[in-house]
Design goal:
alpha/beta, Rossmann fold, DNA polymerase, domain 1, 42% helix, binds 1,6-di-O-phosphono-beta-D-glucopyranose, binds magnesium ion
């Protein structure tokens, strides 16, 4: 068995920006004259900004010109950026820092694998930018989750083979991407929603060092 590495999703795993994305999309939907529920938002998680707008317009039964789409994409992102502007290290989700510190102490290679084009500023705001050896985000990938591209690039840049890579994800699309890549998938969130994951936790406070040791073969 080779050395193990971990890839973390960002939104909904390390920080609770999923709620900010939801709010910004919901406000846009309301402005366009229809509602957007939290349940519908599940399929937006891990999905690119452009694809998310297409899904939103499908929900509202709307068609739009490219010019309109560009305006709405910009508007949504500006609202989202106004939310993340206020983020601090207090916005790191419960239990995450403890797990990251443990991995750093044990010299486990860690990467970020996010669909977001705003990943770096978010990590900067919450003070976690320096701890990631590798960052793969929406600016580096062409194919969105569930395509495994983001995780394949992450593992290869870490120098870890897919079978020895563990992915922490809060989205259905992200869990599918990890599974397709032959990686170990760990679902963070509702186990009923993330039922394709190999391991499930509601949040990082449930993850013990013993679980990590077993996963990583730390003795
Ligand atoms: P942005 P992740 C994803 O991040 C979000 O889950 C998804 O809701 C969002 O649409 C996507 O990033 C793009 O984000 O608009 O910031 O480029 O979960 O893959 O870290
Ligand atoms: Mg996510």
């Amino acid at each position: 068995m080779g050395k193990k590495g971990i890839i973390f999703d960002l939104d909904g795993v390390i920080v609770d920006t999923a709620g900010f994305h939801y709010l910004a999309w919901k406000n846009l939907a309301n402005e366009l004259g229809f509602d957007f529920t939290e349940e519908q938002n599940e399929s937006f998680k891990g999905v690119s900004r452009v694809r998310s707008l297409e899904l939103l317009l499908e929900i509202g039964g709307r068609t739009a010109t490219q010019a309109e789409k560009d305006v709405w994409l910009k508007k949504k992102n500006e609202e989202y950026l106004s939310y993340i502007d206020d983020m601090t290290k207090d916005d790191i989700l419960p239990g995450v820092k403890k797990v990251l510190d443990y991995l750093v102490d044990n010299k486990v290679p860690i990467a970020l694998g996010s669909a977001s084009k705003n990943a770096k500023p978010i990590l900067e705001h919450v003070g976690l930018l320096p701890i990631f050896e590798v960052i793969v985000d929406g600016t580096n990938v062409k194919k969105a989750k569930p395509d495994p591209e983001v995780f394949l690039i992450g593992a290869s840049q870490l120098g870890i083979v897919n079978e020895d890579t563990i992915v922490f994800e809060d989205s259905i699309a992200g869990i599918q991407a990890a599974n397709i890549a032959g990686m170990t998938s760990v679902g963070i969130g509702d186990p009923g929603v993330l039922n394709e994951a190999q391991h499930n936790f509601h949040d990082f406070t449930e993850i013990s060092t013993q679980f990590l040791d077993n996963l990583l073969n730390i003795t």
